[in-house]
Amino acid sequence: MQTINCKGKLIDLKKPKIMGVLNITPDSFYDGSTNQNSKFIVDKVNDMLANGATFIDIGGYSSRPNASDVSTKEELKRVLPIIDLLIKEFPEILISIDTFRAEVAEKAINKGACIINDISAGNMDKNMYDTVADLQVPYIIMHMVGTPQTMQNNTNYDDIIKDIIYYFSEITAKLNRKGVNDIVIDLGFGFSKTIEQNYHLLNNLELFKVLEQPILTGVSRKSMLYKPLGIEAKDALNATTVANTIALSKGTSILRVHDVKQAMEAVNIMELLNNTSY
Fold first, then answer.
1. What tens digit of pLDDT does each residue of 174-231 get?
2. Which end of the chain has less Cβ packing within 10 Å, N or C?
3. What is the pLDDT of residues 115-132, one digit of tens each?
4. Which of 222, 234, 250, 261 is catalytic?
5. Is 256 in the active site?
6. Cβ proximity of 124 and 130 under 8 Å
7. Which of 78, 101, 221, 256 is catalytic?
8. What DSSP state is assigned to residue 68?
9. 198, 224 in Cβ contact below 8 A?
């Protein structure tokens, strides 16, 4: 599938698209802040859109390893006003809501978001599949075993590639039976995986094309990049660009990133490489 339908607009994924990350949390691993006032957020999103982001992914629940749990009420309090703000400032904006909770997803879509990005692929809320089916919006399903609080204890696989392909094939079949057609898969780099496993997946990412769904890759400034290099997340832009370029070369359709300008440059360079007529 080369397109997804967002608010009646078909988004062509033949040329990879950029999803800019907007964390409305005080404890995100990279860009969390308690100082995110309205002007800061509008300016940040304006920059991301100007630099080529097609989607803005809003999250009010930090999913970094060992992150604190946040109530549904608090998550809604964080994200809904921001969706209102951004829809008002950017009427054509395509917002993805990063949540595993059906209630948050539904209220966000009703406010004007148009994609649900679920780190649990429906495994943390039994109502999510029916909610997605009722709302008829694109659904991003990520691979994770357990919860953000327990996931790094769950890194044992018989064959990690076969296991994840089976995981996605089962879920997509369930979703298809419920009438959900626009599905995007996310391998979940950094979730229930060791550093070595993350690189094994990145190196074999093209094998997941067998699922015949667009692939989203989110490696931006993650520990799989900065820990082996002995640096911190704030210094991992170059490593992120390298990993994004590898992901693009292996068939990624969407890059989820903190740094839109540099990711867009990687997309454009890969397009030049792939479209040369010599």
1. 999 999 999 999 999 999 999 999 999 999 999 999 999 999 999 999 999 999 999 9
2. C
3. 999 999 999 999 999 999
4. 222
5. yes
6. no
7. 256
8. P
9. yes
